[in-house]
Amino acid sequence: MLVAPRCGEEARQLLRSLCPGKAGRLRPLRGVAPLRRPLPLFASPCGEEAAREAASRLPLGCAAELLVVACEAPQRERPPVSYVLVGPVAVVSLDERLRGREREVAEQLLRSVPGIVAVYGKEETVGEYRVQRLRLLAGKPVEEVVYVEHGLRIPVRLGKVYVNPRLATEHRRVAEMIQPGERVLDMFSGVGGFSLAASATGKPSLVVANDANPYAVEALVKAIEMNKRRLRSPIVALMADASRLPELLQPVFTRIIMNLPHSAKQFLPTALRLCSPGQRCTIHLYTVAHSPEEALAGLPTGLRVTGVTRVLDYAPRKYIYRVDLVAEPGKGDAEDKAPSEGRR
Q: Whole-model pTM?
């Protein structure tokens, strides 16, 4: 409703009385109508009829013009497949559903997902550092992006490091388990998702992040500098084969993260050598399995199982589980405990 300048307050009060509980403070709209000089313009909180009633009740000499506007939300194409976002890049899995129409689907994603500049297809995991090979399907080539997770910025060189945005919730969940003063070792840190989230809580007295991939360690070092105002616990970045960590580190750790799902179990003896003697040591081990029972298979004795949590779908009827273990001095065989499966 557009009214004469001297009648703005009367129009506002009338609309508020006709729309009780909906009008709030009801301020004039600005920058909407292309007028040479500003006039009071109000949007009726309860529709056209209330605006007409208010106009009819205005005092003599107060002209009012009703502007009926139909607003329609822009329609976007629905994304044709599931995807993950790494900065301004969408990554899709190349499987039999996309075979022969990869380009078509990628172009549709470019149109339907706001803000992305490229679509990459995820092929098999290859190489010494087990990173996923990426193939450009549509858009412009991108070498490095800044991936943001819980407000923390991480530089990512596509195809050189492993990053999975679907683990963001798990990073935060494990960080929240840490107790004040703990010394945390992230044995296979990658670009530092777990380590950065842990440091941001301010609870650990020390976080040591290790990875054998030089590109991942470089990204973590850059991320530490980029997020220095948000990080509250010190992070030490190492580049070493995890099997050599007992040669490089003292056994001082009270919490160890082992996110190497295909082979973490074989490094458990190494992790136990790094646990602080005389203190409770919690280990978060990630493994690929069909069931909680399979996730527990092959664990050494002397460890207490405190939980088995399903974290991600990995393949049909195959999942990534987190097995929470506790090594306590003076304990013998692991205590029997039925696993509790929680879908995440």
A: 0.73
Residue 129, Cβ density class (10 Å: 0-12 exposed, 13-18 middle, ≥19 buried): middle
Which one-letter amino acid corresponds to residue 82? Answer: S
3-class DSSP assignment, residue 285: strand
∠ CA 340-342-343, rounded to 5°: 150
DSSP 209-255: EE-S-HHHHHHHHHHHHHTTTT--S-EEEE-S-GGGHHHHS-S-BSE
**Does position 150 have pLDDT exceeding 70, yes or no?**
yes
Tell me how crowded residue 277 is: count the other CB atoms within 10 A of its CB.
8
Phi, psi of 10 (to 5 degrees): -60, -45
Question: Which of the following CATH numbers is that of domain 84-142: 3.30.300.110, 3.40.50.2300, 2.40.128.110, 1.10.860.10?
Answer: 3.30.300.110
pLDDT tens for each residue of 172-194: 999 999 999 999 999 999 999 99
